[in-house]
TrEMBL record:
Belongs to the AB hydrolase superfamily. MetX family. This is Homoserine O-acetyltransferase. Keywords: Acyltransferase, Amino-acid biosynthesis, Cytoplasm, Methionine biosynthesis, Transferase. The lineage of its organism: Bacteria, Pseudomonadati, Bacteroidota, Bacteroidia, Marinilabiliales. Homodimer.
Length: 337
């Protein structure tokens, strides 16, 4: 299913003050907006995902899943800075007629949310029944919920935080260091930095999983083996897999966006900002998540008035939010009830 494209000619003023001209937002919709206008499910995607949520969150979103197009009007927009159809580093800069590459302006989570808001208005959506997001998508959902309030009924927030941690920033910086030592990174072409990004993805995967994940899935059965280990092949495979579908410019940009996330910036504190979110909220943590430990989700649940907290168990750490669809379905069903 190909995405639709919304072109906004008036330009978007970013938090930095930079005017991003002629933006394009790629998005998918599934189902129909009902006459009561109360069935919108809006998904905010994570770092390297796209707007086709039926592809990457199958089991929770799909024809026969909990969020399905028979009952819901499901919307997912590709974020600015990405490489799946929305304006990003490989887009043409209207001011120069050349591709942006390294000249693409630095974005923030609030800039991503501003683009979502433009699309919401374009689609004529007055109220979102449920806004759901995890990881970088959770950062977007939280920031947008702060602004939406009367236009939003439910927030489902997974495996993310109110302010990105020093731990998370350190992982992201290590990945950018890997990209920057790639001798091609300073070039202006779509393949620049790809070898570095393979290493960056390998580093990232260590934060997405955990010790037990690798013990259970990548341990060797041959005790005398000295090379070509399963874990080594797995890391290389995951790096190559991302390099075949993504670009280093977007990876760099989006990791920077994560680092700058802080719901409390300019709002006294994170606690104060969270206290202003007046929608029914479900916060979900993954008990084995190393990148976004459950203490971060508990903090959010404790500070959004009336928020509920749920926890899922998973061998797969942070990636549990993508893989434990049955558990997620159960806790979201209970939240609605």
């Amino acid at each position: 299913m190909n995405p639709k494209h919304f072109k906004y000619k008036d330009g978007l003023i970013l938090e930095s003050g930079y005017r991003l001209e002629d933006i394009t937002i790629a998005y998918h919709t599934y189902g129909e907006y009902n006459p009561q206008k109360n069935n919108v499910i809006w998904v905010c995607h994570a770092l390297t995902a796209n707007s086709d949520v039926f592809d990457w969150w199958a089991g929770l979103f799909g024809q026969e899943d909990f969020f399905n197009p028979r009952e819901h009007f499901i919307v997912c927009a590709n974020i600015l800075g990405s490489c799946y159809g929305s304006t990003g580093p490989l887009s043409e800069n209207p001011n120069t007629g050349k591709l942006f590459y390294h000249e693409f302006p630095q974005l923030t989570v609030r800039d991503l949310v501003a683009a979502h808001e433009l699309l919401r208005i374009e689609l004529g959506i007055d109220k979102i029944h449920t806004l759901i997001g995890s990881s970088l998508g959770g950062m977007q959902a939280l920031e947008w919920a702060y602004n939406l309030n009367e236009h939003l009924e439910h927030l489902v927030f997974l495996a993310s935080n109110a302010q990105h941690s020093a731990w998370g920033i350190a992982f992201n910086e290590s990945q950018r260091m890997a990209i920057s030592v790639d001798s091609t990174w300073k070039e202006s072409n779509k393949n620049a930095g790809l070898e570095g990004m393979k290493t960056a993805r390998s580093i990232a995967l260590l934060s997405y999983r955990n010790y037990q994940t690798y013990q259970d899935t990548q341990s060797e059965t041959e005790p005398d083996k000295q090379d070509d280990f399963k874990a080594s092949s797995y890391q290389n495979y995951q790096g190559l897999k991302l390099a075949n579908r993504f670009n280093a410019y977007s990876y760099w940009q989006l990791s920077k966006i994560m680092d700058g996330h802080n719901i409390g910036r300019g709002r006294i504190s994170s606690k104060n900002a969270l206290s202003q979110i007046e929608v029914k909220t479900l916060v979900i943590g993954v008990e084995s998540d190393l990148l976004f430990p459950i203490a971060e989700q508990k903090f959010i649940a404790q500070n959004i008035p009336g928020a509920q907290y749920a926890e899922i168990r998973s061998l797969y750490g942070h990636d549990g939010f993508l893989l434990e669809q049955k558990q997620l379905t159960k806790v979201i069903q209970s939240f609605y009830k």
